Amino acid sequence: MTEFDIRDNIDAFLAANKYEVDEEHAHIELVDEPSDDEFDKLIRVCPGALYKRDETGKRTFDYAGCLECGTCRIACGETIVQRWENPQPSMGVEYRYG
Amino acid sequence: MADFDAIVVGAGCAGSVAAYELASAGKSVLMVERGNYAGAKNMTGGRIYSHSLKKVFPNFEQEAPLERRVVTERVSLMSPDANLTIGFRSDEMLKEGQDSYTVLRGPFDQWLASKAEEAGAEAIYGIAVESLLKDGSGKVTGVRAAEDEISAEVVILCDGVNSLLTAEAVGFKTPEPHTMAVGIKQVIELPSAVVTDRILAVSDDEGAAWLFAGDATHGHIGGGFMYTNRDSISLGIVATISDLMANSSTPIYQMLEDLKRHPSVAPLIRGGKVVEHSGHMVPEGGFDMMPDMVGDGVLLAGESAMMCVNLGYQVRGMDYAIAAGQMAGIEAAKALDNGNTSKAGLMGYQQALEDSFVLKDLRQFRRFPHFMESTSRIFNEYPALARDVMNEMFVCDGTPVKPLRKSVMPLVKQVGLLNIVKDVRGGVSAL
Ligand SMILES: Cc1cc2nc3c(=O)[nH]c(=O)nc-3n(C[C@H](O)[C@H](O)[C@H](O)COP(=O)(O)OP(=O)(O)OC[C@H]3O[C@@H](n4cnc5c(N)ncnc54)[C@H](O)[C@@H]3O)c2cc1C
Ligand code: SF4
User: Fold this and answer.
1) For domain B4-67+104-175+288-364, which architecture applies?
2) What is the total count of domains within chain A?
3) pLDDT at B232
4) Please, what sign has the CA dihedral across residues B365, B18, B167, A72?
5) Quick check: pTM over 0.95?
6) Which of B102, B159, B322 best tests ligand 1's pocket when mutated (most atoms within 8 Å of CB)?
7) According to the model, what pLDDT value does residue B406 have?
């Protein structure tokens, strides 16, 4: 497990984005027991900071804030990212600026 | 009879232009876009070099929602505690067809899609194509979207860098992490007069482009970018996925927050408000990672075919996508006229790409991705060297001065004169 240098929380920036969140269906799914090494890769590369580990070591992934870049699919598509789909019709992020 | 002559998947730069050309040639076209409007899922740096857009829309300067015309280029070697910047402006880069404009994809893509629709293309928004239809021989005959099946004589995949369809279409394998970069960006709102003043421009139509190597990515392969829009600044980072994911102790979003605080960036965005935070990938593997661009009943244009060049001081993808979209539209229309949309019938597209700057450039820069990957000094030692040399020149503390040669040579020796010579030669031959 890597000790990360994380000093900022970017949730407020994601909150500025427009989303249609699909509460029923997660368009990205991880395997049941993802390895720490693979999970660390996703902490490093996800531009939305959606892969997190808290002080107690608990890991979370929140697909609702997904920016739909596909980076986790490229980084870990053969390891712990089990499924990466486009969100359901009309769902997901909606860039107004882009 | 198929439902449409052509189906275009994706209403980005390549897709809307391909649909525009097909509709202008009198073909029935359906454009399927997964965003609720064109641009809703798209992000770029960005600045668009105008030459290929001008070929499709000669009056785009009057019509398109452009942000600012780029009149200054800046490139920086950034270390944590210093920054060396080269600034450049020239009359050449302002000439018609040689100029470039900053854009925001939300408004820009909607305009581009409206041109296709005005020309007669039909568009559906908010629905992703899930898979392709094929006949017994394997020829692509249409698409499946939201449980509907729609057929066409030819399908043009313009679904971008994260295409989930090119595997099915032409057997393209998911790209390796060392051939792809992740991009992160914030749009930071500021009054237009403030943006203009901060880049030392004379009007709100003038803009700046600025690229950073070194500390922007904390020494990892990649760089930072800044483009000025009319009343906002686009600030972001691009980093090669393999290098970033291997061992960086700083996640990419933290790197962006650090870039925002760097003393040479902070004054530019001071008082600004983040109105959007986005992410998108950039293909970086160049020519050697490109898939087949023609299959039976199917063409690939733009980043679905990995058409992008990132040289560190120049990022290009939109002008390639527009040119490729135009060629795909024109050549697909010809194939339809000939009644032959088999792979052989569509090969005119391949030839057109070969004859154009698109494939010529990608071939020319073929060795560049490898050069960048193997030259980590650009992101670490050189920014530090630049800082130390500049400190020798500009810092004055009253101690007796040494001849510049004596103070600079030891710094150069730290990096290794041979390494520098090797890197310069490597860089020059890769370009
Ligand atoms: C951070 C960053 C900075 C960049 N800077 C620059 C720059 O300064 N200058 C430059 O020229 N280029 C730049 N680029 C590259 C440029 O943005 C791309 O090359 C360009 O957008 C590619 O255009 P495209 O039409 O191929 O794909 P896109 O513009 O990505 O369009 C693809 C479209 O397909 C849609 N789509 C995808 N899948 C489906 C599906 N299954 N069904 C329906 N629709 C679908 C998407 O929603 C999207 O609208 C940058 C890229 C990034 C990420
Ligand atoms: S697609 Fe991009 S933003 Fe979404 S979870 Fe994966 S890496 Fe994060």
Assistant:
1) 3-Layer(bba) Sandwich (3.50)
2) 1
3) 98
4) positive
5) yes
6) B159
7) 85
Q: What is the pLDDT of residues B319-362, one digit of tens each?
A: 999 999 999 999 999 999 999 999 999 999 999 999 999 999 99
Q: Would you mind telling me the total number of residues written for chain B in this entry?
A: 431
Q: Which of residues 73-132 of B touch A (CB under 8 A)?
A: 104-106, 108-109, 126-128
Enumerate residues lining ligand 1, CB below 6 A. A 86; B 9-15, 32-35, 41-48, 128-129, 158-160, 164-165, 183, 185, 236, 238, 280, 282, 302-303, 308, 315-319, 321
Q: What is the CATH number of the domain that holds A67?
A: 3.30.70.20
- pLDDT score at B429: 84
- pLDDT of amino acid B140: 98
DSSP secondary structure code for residue B173 in this structure: P
Out of B34, B39, B253, closest to residue A49 by CB: B253
pLDDT of residue B409: 86
ipTM field: 0.98
- The ligand that comes nearest to the alpha carbon of residue B236 is 1
Alpha carbons B2 and B426: distance in angstroms, whole number: 52
Mind listing the pLDDT tens digit for each residue in B7-60?
999 999 999 999 999 999 999 999 999 999 999 999 999 999 999 999 999 999
Chain A residues touching residue B280 (CB < 8 angstroms): 67, 69
Quote the tokens at residue B48.
């668009």
Q: Where are the domains of chain B?
A: 4-67+104-175+288-364, 178-283, 371-430
For position A19, what pLDDT does the model report?
Answer: 97
Q: Confirm if B127 and B145 have CB atoms less than 8 A apart.
A: yes
CA distance B375 to chain A (A): 21
Domain with A43 in it: 3-94
Q: Which residues of chain B have pLDDT under 70?
A: none
Q: 10 Å Cβ neighbour count for B175? A: 24
**Ligand 2 contacts CB of residue A60 (under 6 A):** no
Residue B398 region, left (φ>0) first, then alpha (ψ -120 to 50), else beta? left
Substitution candidate for ligand 2 out of A43, A71, A84 with most atoms within 8 A of CB: A71
Measured from the Cβ of residue B10, the count of other Cβ atoms closer than 10 Å reads 33
Whether the per-residue pLDDT at A1 is higher than 80: the answer is: no
For residue B187, which of A13, A45, A91, A43 has the smallest C-alpha distance?
A: A13
Locate B108 and state its tokens. Answer: 């820009």
Instruction: Give the CATH fold of the B178-283 domain.
Output: D-Amino Acid Oxidase; Chain A, domain 2 (3.30.9)
